[in-house]
Amino acid sequence: MSKPFDVTLKHLLEAYPADWVKLLGIQATGPIEIVDADLATVTAEADKVFRLAEPSPWMLHLEFQASYATDLPDRILVYNTLVYRQHRSLVRSVVLLLRPEADGPAMSGLLRRQFPGEPAYLEFRYDVVRVWQLEADEVLAGGIGTLPLALLPDDAKPRLLELVHRLDERIAVELPPDEALTMWTATYILLGLRYPRDIADSLLRGVRAMKESTTYQAIVEEGEAKGLVLGLARGKAEGKAEGKAEGKAEGKAEGKLEAARELLLTVGTKQFGPPDVETRNALESISDFTRLKALTERVMDVSSWAELGIGQ
């Protein structure tokens, strides 16, 4: 099933192929051509395939993954083989894992098949890029087409607001309005892979382009519709089922609060240094998600924990 980030990333790949090749550390000396990724012989479709017009041309096959799939190496092998048969050029396959939940033992970069006690009759190697292990500053300094990934690395978490401001500066200068809308929508969708939607809303609320993006509005409306459906279903539930649903809802709400507290703490610590015990206790006592979001939005506008006013 296609997910929002599939369409988003494929657009960025088609619009800015050189930026993505650069992100992977590949030195391209010639033009980069997008080729048809439809491998119709087995009704399969790879995420994206490029032809690098080097002195000896070769194919680059990219695959994105947001969840763990033990059969992914087998599928990568199939795609790699089919691309080779279709284009008769050497093929390098690269898997981009978008979040830690997509990682696991199968993501080793090597698929080996062998009978017990015998040498392997097949060894297939592919590259694995773990986006959360990239450096946010390096992504932010890279090509414009890969900027939405800059908020996903682990080292971005303590300074998300700062990075959003820097993203805004680059996008405003380097992109026309229509493409700026697309870039911010892509950023919002990818943020949702690592942070709750309310956190993404809070971070990007000040970006004017987000309010003008019909795609962004559609995502928000879809989320609100799902929330209404879940609310009606919960209202009809009875007995044990109702209790279980309420328990899940309470757990989800508490999880959102905890994520919001952690974001405020990490961003504030980056800005002002560690809070004192009194401020930390005041933060832990806040149970209003809206207030936590408002405090997080103010961090860049004040100069200390005291001025932020957590205990007020």
Distance between the termini: 47 Å
- What do the pLDDT scores average to? 80
Helix content: 40-55%
How does the helix and strand content classify structurally?
A: alpha/beta
Low-confidence stretches: 219-240
| Strand percentage | 5-15%
Widest sheet: strand ordering: 1-4-5-6-9
Q: Sheet with the most strands? A: 5 strands, mixed
- The tally of strands reads 9
Rg over CA atoms: 23 Å
Number of helices: 13
What would you call the shape?
elongated
**How would you spell out the order of helices and strands?**
HHEEEEEHEEEEHHHHHHHHHH
Annotate the secondary structure layout.
Elements lengths: L3 H12 L1 H7 L8 E4 L2 E2 L4 E2 L2 E5 L5 E8 L6 H16 L3 E7 L12 E4 L8 E4 L1 E4 L5 H5 L19 H15 L2 H15 L5 H8 L3 H5 L1 H23 L2 H34 L4 H9 L3 H10 L6 H4 L4
Parallel strand pairs: 5-6, 6-9
Antiparallel strand pairs: 1-4, 2-3, 4-5, 7-8
Describe this structure in words.
The protein has helices at 4-15, 17-23, 72-87, 136-140, 160-174, 177-191, 197-204, 208-212, 214-236, 239-272, 277-285, 289-298, 305-308; strands at residues 32-35, 38-39, 44-45, 48-52, 58-65, 91-97, 110-113, 122-125, 127-130. With 312 residues, the protein is an alpha/beta fold. The strands form three sheets. The protein has a five-stranded mixed β-sheet with strand order 1-4-5-6-9, with helices on both faces. It has a two-stranded antiparallel sheet with strand order 2-3. A hairpin with a 5-residue loop joins strand 4 (48-52) and strand 5. The radius of gyration is 23 Å and the shape is elongated. The chain starts with a helix and ends with a helix.
